[in-house]
Write a structure and sequence with these properties.
Structural class of chain B: alpha/beta
Distance between the termini of chain A: 82 Å
Largest sheet of chain A: 4 strands, mixed
Oligomer: heterodimer
Number of helices of chain B: 10
Radius of gyration of chain A: 35 Å
Shape of chain B: globular
Helix content of chain B: 25-40%
Order of helices and strands of chain A: EEEHEEHEHHHHHHHHHH
Helix content of chain A: over 70%
Strand content of chain A: 5-15%
Largest sheet of chain B: 6 strands, mixed
Number of domains of chain A: 2
Distance between the termini of chain B: 20 Å
Strand order of the largest sheet of chain A: 1-2-4-6
Radius of gyration of chain B: 19 Å
Shape of chain A: elongated
Number of strands of chain A: 6
Chain lengths: ~375, ~270
């Protein structure tokens, strides 16, 4: 870009005549545009003294000629050529967005579209579920072709590597349940029942539920993001064309890992919660560990453990199913991977909590109270 | 094969060294690009063409050497200077690198808004519109998102963004890779005609022998970790370097060269 001339950098306006000195470039577009706007018709723009012009400058001149029928005086070859260049490119109605207006009708349309989309979504989910079942049947018939190495790798990622965070979380939950419970129960002088509370709530409910939420956040999101990215980079298409079923190669190992690891992680979570609760009871309520263990055995029925552990693989299955499903739904750009990942986590946590309610009713009906 | 006389240097690289850990990519690399020329950079896959471009535009910090772009030192410079230089160049990345959440027109407006925030409203939209047409896209492409465009259109949209600020220097990383021959030829043509009219300098990385013959004023050959030769294709052909001979006189190179001679009525070889 040329240097600004000191003579008259803004150009001078006199009636219907504008003299532009020095460079006529994008850096002066604002001022020149204003000068042209304020000048009266018939407009004459003198560009004899313009020493450097870019396409934005040319566009401003072109626009003045087009809209105001202005005369350009003193244009040398370079300026004429550039003006012709931008005039050739003046074919478009400048539009940045396709933005349809928002009307009541549009809102109803959106609602309809959303409903239909939701219906299709459900159909696709059921379809995906069917594809998974078919793949399981297929693998059962030819178990040798199944990728056990991939499953072991998933075991590591979903299970072993989650031990630390789930252990810490559960340990803290055990302490919190013990502390909050004891505050309330002390009012009746019944703080010994804190042990009942810790034992039953963590084994029956919290251990599995919190583990499921953690696995949904940790692994469900990872499943969606991994598979979604593979979809964008066409790896899934490549698999299909080679003859590898993406459901068998990608979805089944993840499903299996989640189903097998969830009960193990849930058991670990229960254990750590009891440990945390025991520590609180020992330090906060002066109940020695041995009495704590003895009382736990008395007040926590074994059915509580079964309730907790039976729910875990079901939660794991749905977390993995939703995660992989959302991943497979990715199309288009990288933005969608993020969106689908979020959806995967939200949906799977929602499903887990709904299922937990169903289980609660079911188990109390069968008498495992 | 010296730098041409009366050369006004736009890019000056001296003694450049780039390394990733123990792996040295460039060592003692020198290159000068003059004002108003189209310089093609060729080299085998992995020869460090893209790394060279990345170090010129400041995305890769070299281990050693000096780089000057448009007279400004690119190494150890402060942010204000860098800002100044960035306004004067345009870059087309290998895969377009369009912002996927913005429409093509909004993509073109990003540099305009960044550097000239006082350009607003109708003028801003008009600038985006004519840049898009200039880059060879249909007007309807303006409101589309990058994911809705074909590969060739994405390249052109990316070119439109690179041209948004009327740059003095344009970096192109394999602009015709992945385009069909007709599309690639049209892209070359468009680039050459824009360059002739707007007078910018082009630093062009390419594997496309047709592009080299059609639009490059000089070709820089990257091999053995440095620029082993710079010159017109005729000058390079006169050299006795095995890689250069293999590149331009291999089966593909010969075919292109022959076709080029026939087209232009020349009888050089």
């Amino acid at each position: 870009m040329g240097e600004e001339t000191t003579r008259d950098p803004a150009g001078s306006t006199s009636g219907g005549r504008i003299d532009i000195h020095g460079p006529l470039t994008i850096s002066r577009a604002g001022t020149v545009e204003r000068d042209i706007e304020h000048a009266a018709d018939p407009l004459v723009i003198d560009v004899t003294n313009v020493d450097h012009m870019d396409t934005v400058g040319a566009w401003l001149l072109h626009r003045a000629v087009r809209d105001r029928n202005a005369t350009i005086a003193g244009a040398h070859d370079e300026i004429t050529a550039l003006m012709k260049q931008v005039a050739d490119a003046d074919r478009a109605e400048p539009k940045i967005h396709e933005d349809p207006p928002i009307t009541p009708r549009k809102l109803i349309e959106d609602l309809g579209r959303w409903t239909i989309e939701f219906g299709f979504h459900m159909v696709r989910l059921i379809g995906f579920f069917g594809a998974v079942l078919l793949a399981i049947a297929h693998v059962m018939r030819r178990p040798k072709k199944f990728r056990f190495n991939a499953v072991v790798q998933r075991f590591d990622l979903v299970g072993v590597r989650a031990l630390g965070i789930i252990g810490l979380m559960s340990f803290l939950i055990g302490i919190v349940v013990g502390q909050q419970g004891s505050v309330q129960l002390q009012q009746f002088g019944a703080e010994v029942y804190t042990i009942n509370l810790i034992g039953r709530i963590t084994v029956r409910e919290l251990g599995t539920l919190m583990t499921a939420i953690m696995v949904a956040g940790r692994s469900g999101s990872a499943f969606a993001a991994q598979i979604g990215t593979m979809k964008i980079t066409e790896e899934i298409d490549a698999m299909r064309t080679i003859g590898v079923s993406p459901v068998e190669a990608l979805v089944l190992p993840r499903l299996l890992a989640a189903v097998v690891m969830m009960p193990l992680l849930a058991f670990w979570a229960m254990f750590m919660s009891l440990l945390g609760g025991g520590l609180f009871v020992w330090l906060g309520l002066d109940i020695p560990p041995l009495s704590y263990i003895q009382r736990l055995q008395e007040v926590t029925p074994l059915t509580d453990l079964w309730v907790g552990l039976l729910k875990a693989p079901v939660f794991g299955f749905f977390i993995a199913l939703v995660g992989c499903f959302q991943g497979m739904q990715v199309e288009g750009n990288s933005e969608e991977v993020g969106m689908r990942t979020t959806t995967a986590v939200v949906h799977s946590i929602f499903i887990v909590i709904v299922l937990d309610a169903v289980f609660a009713v079911f188990f109390s009906q069968v008498g495992w109270i | 094969m010296e730098t041409p006389k009366n050369c006004i240097p736009v890019i000056e690289i001296e003694g450049l060294k780039n390394a990733f850990g123990d792996q040295v990519v460039h060592e003692n690399l020198d290159l000068t690009v003059c004002h108003g020329e189209i310089v093609g950079v060729v080299g085998g896959s992995g020869a460090g063409k893209s790394v060279l471009m990345r170090s010129i535009i400041g995305l890769q910090t070299p281990v050693d050497g000096s780089i000057k772009v448009l007279g400004e030192n690119m190494i150890d410079r402060d942010e204000a200077e860098a800002h100044n230089v960035r306004r004067r160049w345009g870059i087309l990345f290998q895969n377009g690198a369009l912002f996927s959440t913005l429409t093509v027109a909004e993509n073109v407006q990003v540099p305009l808004r960044e550097y000239f925030p006082y350009i607003k409203g109708a003028l801003l939209d008009e600038i985006a519109a004519y840049k898009i047409i200039m880059a060879g896209l249909p007007a309807s492409a303006a409101t589309k998102y990058p994911s809705e465009l074909s590969g060739g259109m994405r390249k052109r949209a990316s070119l439109a963004r690179a041209l948004a600020l009327d740059p003095e220097l344009l970096f192109l990383d394999e602009p015709t890779a992945g385009l069909d021959p007709i599309g690639a030829a049209a892209f070359d043509e468009q680039l050459k005609s824009l360059q002739r009219k707007l007078g910018f300098t082009v630093f062009l990385i390419t594997h496309d022998l047709d592009t080299l013959h059609a639009i490059c004023d000089r070709v820089a050959v990257l091999a053995d970790k440095k620029v082993i030769a710079v010159g017109t294709i005729e000058e390079l052909l006169a050299l006795d370097h095995p890689w250069i001979q293999e590149y331009f006189n291999g089966p593909r190179g010969r075919a292109v060269h022959k076709g080029h001679d026939v087209l232009h009525g020349g009888a050089a070889s």
